[in-house]
Fold this sequence. Notes:
The chain has one domain: Glutaredoxin (3-Layer(aba) Sandwich), CATH 3.40.30.10. 41% of the residues lie in helices and 20% in strands. Helix 1 links the parallel strand 1 and strand 2.
Amino acid sequence: MHLILYTKDGCPWCRDVLAFLRKKNVAFEKREVLGNRSYFDELVQKSGQTKTPTLDLDGAILADAGVAEVEPWLCEKRVL
């Protein structure tokens, strides 16, 4: 399992999802898109939009989601 979390610095929803993943001890790779054009382009290619937080779990995408959407999605994917 490889989880990528696309974030934007200063985004309160991103901070919440980061804190949630850390609290649940979920391994993930954080990719901040505002400071990295390559990550930004990746986000758009994978999700079709520019909003964060967006998660990529082995190619399954959950775009523009807060903790309320992330938790059940990760349970469905058997990460939690």
